[in-house]
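User: I'll paste a sequence; please echo it back and then give the predicted structure.

Assistant: Echoing your sequence first, then the prediction.
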Amino acid sequence: MKKKCTLILSLLLVLALLCACGGAAETGKTENTENAQPVKIRVAASPTPHAEILAVAAEILAQEGYELEIVEYDDYVQPNLVVDSGELDANYFQHSPYLESFNAENGTQIVSVGLIHYEPFGIYAGKTASLEELPDGAEIIIPNDGSNETRALLLLQQEGLIKLADGINASSNATVYDIAENPKNLKITEMDAAQLARSLPDVDLAVINGNFALAAGLNAAEDALAVEDASGDAAQTYANLLGVKAGRENDPAIQALLKALQSDQVRDYINENYGGAVVPIF
């Protein structure tokens, strides 16, 4: 009987030890999960306003276990190339017409995950203070890339300075050769978008992209002589998007980034900080 009791006690002791080890293992598993390194998301962006908006999204993502690394670019080429190559996970700097044109010309496979904001194009004064004072033969500089050049030409047409050939719309890739009427014989010079603001003092007028205008301290809602008609199709056509390599659209990290960018916090930040020069589109 004594031996039997001893055996039972031994078995109970073994079971207790097993349970304790199991509990410790489970506790260790929880601690490892809690102490796991955050998942890094690397995003290419223009400095203003894209990188600034991403900084707000980064705070939201940090609470969900993601670390957002923002890599800034001053051009419109590298952000797509580094995403297509897989060097970075996503980009945030462009609209759909530019993306479609870039893919077609470069063989890249970047797709939109979702729309974030719209930046109205503006006409800004250089040597000439107003549209009414614009002399014959005045020089106007515009972006030289397909979709943004179209957008600039449409804005000049909106203000009655030129008339484009029939059929030119927001989805076209128009150039100065598509100008059908130029009553003031304006000299319209195509230039890299990043150079427009710094060249403004040397010309009569410039049509400048929203992000480059902001970077130069210009606000379309306050400083431009004219802006795109917000009631037209420009807002949807030229809305800035979150781009990724095709096939990555549904990655959990990408979806978390999109959700953060389309959050109430980001909407409030845009409305409170850009005074109408950047407009949430979600």
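The radius of gyration is 27 Å. The first helix runs from residue 2 to 34.
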